[in-house]
Design a protein that fits this description.
Shape: globular
Mean pLDDT: 88
Strand content: 15-25%
Helix content: 10-25%
Oligomer: single chain
Length: about 450
C-alpha cells in the first residue's frame, strides 16, 4: 500500500531511508549499515594506564583517581582511530543495574563501522560499556574547562562531531557534507575536547546519564580539573540534563557537582511529538513489509504494506510483545497538539496521534507512550541546579532534505523552536539563540552554531 499523496511522496520517503542519518530525535535514519556479529561478551584488550595531562598551566586541582567502579578495557590510537580523533578508549561501569538493552533482531540497531572495533568486536554491547573519544590537544589546550560532547539518537561521536560526511550524501542535513565538525572547530580554538560514545543507539537516557557522569569522572582524573562543560545535541540533551538534575535509576549515582556550563543543541527541552503528529509519514522507511530498514521506532503496532497487515513489536515506541528497543525515544515525548494541532492532511492522522484502528494502521496513540515513560515532566520537576549555567540553541530551518519536515510551527525540521528553547526547570540561563539557517541535522557542524557554542564556552 502506498501513501495516498502519490508516487512522488513515496519516492521521497524511500530516499530518506537511503540517505539520511538520524541525529537526536529525527525519525528517518541512515540504513543498510554493515551488520556485524552480535553478542554480549566483550573481547577485552590489554588495559593501558590512563594518560595524565602533560600541560600544567590549565590544571586547576590535583589529579583525582578514576573511580573504582570504572574499568579501562581497551585503548585505540594512531593507526586505528579515524576522523581526526587522537584516541578512543573503552570503559566498563561495573555498577550493578546496567544491562544489555534490547536490539531489533534484524540488526538495524547494531553498532557499525569503527565502533564495532572500539567495542571489542561486539555489535550489540551491554550498556555498561562506553567509549571516550579524545581530540588532538586534549591535554595541551589553553582553555581551562574541558568540553564533553554528547551525541544524539542513532548516531556516533564520529559522525556527529568529527566527520559529518561519514554517512554519505545528505546524511548531514545538506546536499554536501563537510569532513570536519564541532570537535575540530573547538579544538582549533584551544578547547580540550572529548566525546562520549554510547553502547545503544536509542538507549535509555537514565543509563546514558550515568555514562555521562562516568565520562566526566574520567576526564577529571585525566586532567585534574574540577568541572567540565557539556554540549548535548538533540537526544544528547536528555542524558546531559538528566545527569546534572540527578534524575537517575534507583541504583544510579547523583550529580557530582562537576559541570560548569550546559549547552543544548536542538534538544527537546519541552519534548516532541513528531513521530505521532504526521500520520504514517516515514513508516515505509521502518516497516519491513514496505522495504523499510531505518533504525527508528514506530507509533503503530500494526500496518498494511502491499496488502499485508503485519505487527512488529520490535519497532514499537512502547514496550510490546516482550520487546522494548527504543526507550530513549519514548522518554522524549510530550504532546504539542494543544499548541500546534496535528497534521490533518496525513493518512490515518487521528488514530496515529490519539490511538485506535485507522484505515491502514493501528496504534495506542501518544498519550499511552507518554504514560509508558516520558522523562520530560520528571526533568522539568527535578530542575537543573542553579550553579549550572545553561545555554539553549535552536535551529530555525525546517528544510532537512529527504524527510517530511515538522511544519506545524517554527522548527528545525524535527524539534519545535519553542521546545528547544524551553527553560522550564532551568533557573540559570546564560543565553538562548535561534540559528535561522540551520536545520536539525546541521547543528553539529553549521558555522554559525559552532561560533555560538565557542562563544558560550569561552
Amino acid at each position: 500500500m502506498v501513501d495516498s499523496r502519490g508516487p512522488e511522496r513515496w519516492w521521497r520517503l524511500r530516499a530518506a531511508a537511503r540517505v539520511l542519518a538520524a541525529v537526536g530525535v529525527v525519525a528517518a535514519a541512515v540504513v543498510d549499515s554493515p551488520a556485524a556479529a552480535s553478542g554480549t561478551a566483550v573481547a577485552t584488550a590489554t588495559a593501558r594506564p590512563i594518560p595524565t595531562a602533560t600541560a600544567t598551566a590549565t590544571t586547576t586541582t590535583a589529579a583525582a583517581a578514576t573511580p573504582s567502579y570504572l574499568t579501562l578495557e581497551a585503548s585505540y590510537g594512531a593507526g586505528t582511530v579515524t576522523n581526526g580523533w587522537e584516541s578512543v578508549e573503552r570503559y566498563r561501569d561495573t555498577t550493578s543495574g546496567f544491562r544489555t538493552e534490547g536490539y531489533p533482531p534484524d540488526g538495524r540497531g547494531d553498532q557499525d563501522g569503527k565502533r564495532v572495533t572500539y567495542f571489542g568486536g561486539v555489535a550489540r554491547p551491554s550498556s555498561d560499556r562506553f567509549l571516550l573519544y579524545s581530540a588532538p590537544g586534549w591535554n595541551s589546550g589553553s582553555r581551562t574547562t574541558p568540553v564533553l560532547l554528547v551525541h544524539g539518537a542513532n548516531d556516533t561521536a564520529d559522525r556527529a562531531w568529527a566527520n559529518p560526511g561519514e554517512a554519505g550524501g545528505y546524511g548531514c542535513g545538506a546536499a554536501s557534507c563537510p569532513s570536519t565538525g564541532l570537535m575540530q572547530y573547538l579544538a582549533g580554538r584551544g578547547h580540550r575536547v572529548f566525546a562520549v560514545g554510547f553502547a545503544h543507539k536509542q538507549g535509555d537516557n537514565l543509563m546514558q546519564a550515568q555514562v555521562v557522569g562516568d565520562a566526566i569522572a574520567v576526564i577529571k582524573a585525566k586532567l585534574g580539573v574540577a568541572k567540565v562543560d557539556l554540549v548535548g545535541w538533540s537526544k544528547g540533551q536528555m542524558s546531559t540534563r538528566a545527569y546534572v538534575s540527578s534524575l537517575r535509576p534507583s541504583w544510579g549515582r547523583a550529580y557530582a557537582g562537576d559541570v560548569r556550563r550546559l549547552v543544548t543543541l536542538g534538544g527537546p527541552n519541552g519534548g516532541y511529538d513528531y513521530p505521532y503528529a504526521h500520520g504514517w509519514a516515514h513508516r515505509f522507511s521502518i516497516w519491513p513489509e514496505c522495504g523499510g530498514k531505518v533504525n527508528a521506532p514506530s507509533p503503530h503496532s500494526h500496518m498494511t504494506c502491499y496488502g499485508t497487515y503485519a505487527a512488529h513489536p520490535e519497532f514499537s515506541m512502547t514496550p510490546s510483545g516482550g520487546q522494548d528497543n527504543y526507550p530513549g525515544q519514548r522518554q522524549m515525548l510530550a504532546r504539542w497538539d494543544g499548541v500546534y494541532g496535528v497534521d490533518g492532511a496525513a493518512q490515518d492522522w487521528y488514530t496515529t496521534y490519539y490511538g485506535g484502528q485507522g484505515f491502514y494502521t493501528a496504534g495506542g496513540g501518544i498519550q499511552a507512550a507518554v504514560d509508558a515513560g516520558s522523562l520530560i515532566g520528571p526533568l522539568h520537576s527535578a530542575g537543573v541546579p542553579a550553579s549550572v549555567t545553561a545555554y539553549l540553541l535552536a535551529g530555525g530551518s525546517a528544510d532537512v532534505l529527504g524527510i517530511f519536515n515538522e511544519n506545524r510551527g517554527p522548527s528545525d525540521g524535527v524539534v519545535f523552536v519553542s521546545s528547544a528553547l524551553d527553560t522550564t526547570g532551568i533557573p540559570t540561563v546564560g543565553g538562548r539563540v535561534t540559528v535561522a539557517g540551520a536545520n536539525h541535522l546541521e547543528l553539529g557542524w553549521h558555522s554559525s552554531v559552532a561560533a555560538q557554542v565557542a562563544a558560550w564556552l569561552s
